[in-house]
Amino acid sequence: MTTENRKDWDTYFMDIAFMVSTRSRCPRRHVGAVLVQGKKLLGTAYNGAPMGLPDCSEAGCMVAEQYERKMEDGVERMVKKQRCIRTIHAEQNLLLFTDRTDREGSTVYVTDEPCWTCANMLANSGVREIVYNRPYRKDMDKVEDMMNAKGILFRRLEGYEPPRETLLEAID
């Protein structure tokens, strides 16, 4: 491969996040995350059940319904959300299996925009930047607002095409 064909760093690390996501056995969504300091890869993680316990492909999804108030066109309404609670999210696993000192000032590449809970955890983790590919519309506005308030660079990797062999149709 010549230098002209060499992938940029964002694409390189996002490709790795998508490859990591292939370890997930969740039938709803495969998510991968990587922790990077400079150009050094410090950790990887994916979503799944706690170690040693049956995952969604073995025991089925454990879906919980939650309601949230949302303002739309000046009208408040209740919105129902469904979330699988059997799995630990990729971002949560990444934080569990990496050191705080490694996270200080680092970047997290994640296949999907973090949910509200993961965004809260990442906001307190010491990372300075979060780069994602697929939007997660259920929590998008409030997550973006929080990241802006915290001063964490938060961006979607525009124009990115994941490696074909890593794709699973996500269920929202």
UniProtKB/TrEMBL annotation:
**Gene3D superfamilies in the cross-refs:** Cytidine Deaminase, domain 2
Q: Where do the annotations place Zn(2+) binding?
A: 89, 115, 118
Q: Which cofactor does it need?
A: Zn(2+)
A Pfam family (short name) is: dCMP_cyt_deam_1
**GO MF, one annotated term:** dCMP deaminase activity
Task: Enumerate the UniProt keywords alphabetically.
Answer: Hydrolase, Metal-binding, Zinc
Q: Which GO terms describe its biological process?
A: pyrimidine nucleotide metabolic process
Q: Which residues form the active site?
A: 91
Domain named CMP/dCMP-type deaminase: which ranges? 8-154
What Gene Ontology cellular-component terms does the record carry? cytoplasm
Q: Which InterPro entries match?
A: APOBEC/CMP_deaminase_Zn-bd, CMP_dCMP_dom, Cytidine_deaminase-like, dCMP_deaminase, dCMP_deaminase-rel, Deoxycytidylate_deaminase_dom
Mind telling me which PANTHER family this protein's record contains? DEOXYCYTIDYLATE DEAMINASE (PTHR11086:SF18), DEOXYCYTIDYLATE DEAMINASE-RELATED (PTHR11086)
Q: Which family does it belong to?
A: Belongs to the cytidine and deoxycytidylate deaminase family.
- Protein name as catalogued: dCMP deaminase family protein
Q: What is the lineage of its organism?
A: Bacteria, Bacillati, Bacillota, Bacilli, Bacillales
